[in-house]
Amino acid sequence: MSNILKLTLICSLIFHVLMGKAAGVGELKQIKENYRQMLIPSSIEQDSLLSDLIKIKPEKEMSDQAVVELHQLYPFDLKKIDGYLSLMSADGSWTDINYADTKRSGWEPKLHAERILELSKLYYSKTTEHYHSEKVKEAIHLALKYWFDTKPRCLNWWYNQIGIPKTLGAAFILLEEQLTDQEHRAAVAVMENAKFGMTGQNKVWLAGNVLIRALLQNDADLVKAARDAIASEIVLGRKEGIKDDWSFHQHGPQQQFGNYGLSFVTGMSFFFQLFKDTDYEFTGQQREILVSLIDKGYRWVIWNRYMDVSSLGRQFFHNAQIHKAYSLAFAAEDMGLAGFPAHGNTLIGHKHFDDSDYTVHRSKDWMSSVKMASRRVIGTELVNEDNLKGYYLGDGATYYYVRGDEYLEVFPFWDWRKIPGVTSYEDIAPMPNVNVTRSGNNSDLVGGLSNGKIGMTAMELNRDGLEAHKVWLFADKFVFCLGADIHSDTTLCVTTSIDQRSKSGELYVWNKKKWSAITGAEAFRQKDLRFFHDAVGYIVLDGDTCVAQSEEREGRWSDFMGMYTPATLHGEVAALHLRHGVKPSGASYQYIVLPAATKKEVEEFDPKMIRVIKNDKVAQVVSSPSCGEGYWMAVYQSENFDIEGLFFKAVLPGIYYVEKGLGGLEIKLSSPFRISK
Known about the structure:
By secondary structure, the chain is α+β, with helices and mostly antiparallel strands. The protein has three domains: about 40-50 and about 60-190, Chondroitin AC/alginate lyase (Glycosyltransferase, Alpha/alpha barrel), CATH 1.50.10; about 195-345, Chondroitin AC/alginate lyase (Glycosyltransferase, Alpha/alpha barrel); about 350-605, Beta-galactosidase, Chain A, domain 5, CATH 2.70.98.10. The strands form seven sheets. Strands 10-11-12-13-22-19-18-15-16 form a nine-stranded antiparallel beta sheet. A five-stranded antiparallel beta sheet has the order 9-14-21-20-17, with no helix packed on it. The longest helix has about 35 residues, at about 5-40. It is globular, with a radius of gyration of 28 Å. Mean pLDDT is about 95; it is low at about 10-25.
């Protein structure tokens, strides 16, 4: 090879390397610009969703990362920001922040980082007179210096590796051209607290923080590695993350729609926009998975911009149902998806999330859900003093929505042993610690069956010496709830809660052919009891003593969410529950719930349209013209059945819908219970 040819090849190689680096730098520059544009608040007039959000009063105490980021969408509160500036000390700290705070949730020093980000956004926003303000600029640098010098650390690793780098990282991207060399090195050091690792949403958070560090260091290779780590979680079927039924799991086999799953969706929608029109953008397949997660998962759990209580996970914060629903709606909008209106249901149907032991039923006018647990699925968790009283949240919790706000802010006034739908012990002792005794149900016989419009959900409850068989049959106009073989081995009274919600109007009982308001607590023993409250009717057909409560209660958020400042509040609650007595043996119940009903409809409802054929520990069999011509069966033991002279053999325990055929009963739909290995 001639020297000229060698020189030509070398020059060509250098040219392509330099051009590749130039292209890489250009891509990083575009990503940074995308990042900055996404951080600056948008115009309210251009976004109807945002204009709806700002009508909701902002929270003062926040721990949920999704809610923190949601509040960053609010317009600047200049009065509050003036307060920040007046409370800043000469060393860059704020006098109203407890930097010695040891809470693991709602850690106060995080407010310092959040204020740095807020001031940085204010400095670069042209919507106020603080744009490029020297006063704001000076405050930002003072606050940065304090953080870099003191290096606050939380006892909860999440803040150190995820929460703080995520918040300050966004500020660093905005401030990059303003940072001195020393500040830049300190900023990179903050971001180095995050490393690649973990699973599910934790992995995405950590990779997102590594991405910010890579952008600050202009490291294209590390940007790609971070992007690939983020995108690697956009898959189905892993132990944690997006499940095959489009639910989301984290911390083991546990439904986490409103906690880690919500952060996953909001984070991925952010990255979708961040990488858009660059070499790093998500593939078509990855986008399709994210769209399906929203359409086939999240759409089911949002009703009139309220998230189902059973999707909140452990996060029972102020206005949690509202904030989480809005966070999801913004994420969907960023992905180019609509259909989360404040009023009007656009999704009608019935779905059982088999991976999560979770059922959602949606009619035109109302929604209901059931959350269960099994040997396969964890019911709930207690982490960082979040959810201190939620021990029974996975034991068949059942909620009914017409507006969506029926359970909003009721949590301080709940009897947490009488969560709607749950069969449990009545006790004044402190709630068991779910992290010690776990929230699992010691049975595999849990599941659901759906034809897409209606369905049956069943649960064998076996926990803490209490056993019961519970069934829910969902039709277009009603939910039929059936319990069998309820027994326990303790001296505590066993109850089944029908409902427990915020009082809205009177709780009425149908008595002597007229509606009478309940005052305080009243007990009833007769059958065919009818109640009405807040557009919902309740007909108790059987189930020992029924207690109706319409009363004022007091409570504190801090009793079940440790991050809150203790403060006693008062609220009114309407509740119904059944008392099965001490050491019940073979107790049962039957009741009907009529959501979106009128008093007249409750008066005239004919319970004979629902026939209970069998109700024991072997099987629960129900028939109703509203649910088809056949029989809905929850079968707990493999057996030959004679159903009104028609024969059926259940080879496997499970839920079946059967109809009359030539040789007896024929299976039209079936869902065998999933037996854990």
